[in-house]
Design brief:
With 190 residues, the protein is mostly helical. The longest helix has 27 residues.
């Protein structure tokens, strides 16, 4: 990571500042850039259209209020994803009354013990069901990494974690997904 902001990040910062200052064109551009991917993440995370819409709306309110805090060190997209992901995790925590999965049964497996090959022809429905067994943090990281093509470093910035923690989180999530998908395949065969 560079000590200096990139030209794109400076442009995004200027766009956000203009939108907060009342420039309707800038506001529309910020909303256009961020709405769709943020809604997609929130909907996949929460599984409910109305909750996803509420989260994105609240995220924009928080973005506007915290615009002065956006330094441009990361991209606006990553900054906004941090807001959306935190709101989603908070919503899930409140739904689950604060219960957060602390123990992961795959936590103690070494990387060498894992066979990453999964059979062909796995349906998107099977993947969706498998994603439901992940902890909230694992699902959030996997959605950003797999569906939004974010790097582990970007996921870490969005989730307030370091890259190594994200790598471990993704590793455990992949193990859990693989096990769940293999379990699903064995049920289909019988």
């Amino acid at each position: 990571m560079s000590l200096f902001t990139s030209k794109q990040h400076r442009a995004e910062r200027a766009l956000l500042k203009s939108s907060v200052a009342g420039d309707s064109k800038a506001s529309k551009e910020v909303i256009r850039l961020l709405s769709s991917p943020a809604y997609s993440l929130a909907w996949k995370m929460l599984g409910n259209k109305e909750d996803a819409e509420d989260i994105v709306q609240e995220a924009f309110i928080r973005l506007w209020k915290s615009a002065d805090s956006f330094s441009g060190a990361s991209g606006l997209f990553t900054y906004f994803y941090a807001i959306v992901s935190n709101l989603c995790l908070d919503r899930l925590k409140s739904i689950n009354k604060g219960f957060f999965e602390e123990f992961d049964e795959f936590e103690h497996h070494s990387i060498k013990e894992v066979d990453w090959s999964i059979g062909e022809g796995i349906s998107s429905e099977s993947i969706k069901k498998a994603m439901d067994v992940l902890s909230n943090k694992q699902r959030m990281a996997m959605l950003m990494w797999a569906y939004q093509d974010m790097t582990a470093e970007e996921v870490g910035l969005a989730m307030g974690m370091n890259k190594n923690s994200v790598d471990q989180l993704l590793f455990r999530a992949k193990l859990k997904l693989k096990a769940e998908l293999e379990k699903g395949e064995s049920h289909e065969i019988k």
